[in-house]
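Progress against Task 2.4 (sequence-to-structure conversion) is shown through the following example record, which the project officer requested during the mid-term review.
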Amino acid sequence: MSQPTAASGIAPLQPRSPSFITPEPLTPHAEDSVYLDQLEPPAPPEIRVAGLAENTVAPLNQMSAEPQGKLPPGAREGVFQRIYLNGTWLPILEDEPDSLGFGEFDAGIVLGFPFTRRDTPLLVTPQFGMHFLENSAALDIPSTLYDSAVELRHLRKFGAGPWAMDVATAVGYYSDLEHGSSDAVRITGRGLAVYEATPGTKWILGVAYLNRAGATVLPVVGLMCEPTPTTRLDLIFPRPKFAWQTAGSVPGDERWLYVGGEFGGGVWSVTRPSTRSLDVISYSDLRVLAGFEREIAGGVSWRVETGYVFNRELDYDSAMPDIALDDAIFMRAGVKY
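Structure tokens generated for the chain above:
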């Protein structure tokens, strides 16, 4: 707050002493601010929990108990916040009846709106995805599946205390677009509480609602910390991750190598090619991966990943037996602005 300036011959007014402790000025840092352009994209049917609360809470001495009405660091003026594109390829390693390969493409745009205040935004994310399946005829499933959804997400810190929240819900339509079905409509969501024990340590507790067979609700629990200024450790189920910063990183342009794991899959309403009858299929897998990411605040960021996919299952709602699929490898690349 600016100080009063003395007029000629008049002593400046002395402000009354406040009854609260004035916080130190906010100095944004890439590692502890709410960077909207660095938040992980919402990605049903996959779950990407590691990025949900990664930058939600700033250190206590940099947060004011009173509303500031300012944009979070990294946020853009106006409604547009970010656009992202991702591509994944999972090839068939062996020509077997229980093999399933696919290529995936998904894209979305993040729009931000003030939610009571500018610094507690409501993020609206329309998104669309396509899955091109290999060896689908042997499994009696369509060769192309589609995802379309809109997610609503809200981030909020509670006063000057250590608590914050990250909540989201999405309504989507997941099918082969052959025939309309209410089974294609799916509501997913998550609710996370974030407790900042120290400026570099955050505890995460919550649930993710997947609304799919075999994994309707998943607990989200774990610890996020920075053992050193150039390392990050996310001990969070179901997506642990360890990242370390590489040479050439500067504030606002960071380069990271990382290893981790994730829980993937999805649910779609489909028309079975052999009988033309409606069915619902559910796919799930576990993945271990390694990758490289370049994060440019306010610019074009990108990442590349590769990993091993195992514990793959394809389930049918009909009487057809479920199928244990062969293990595979995958490659993924993404860009966001």
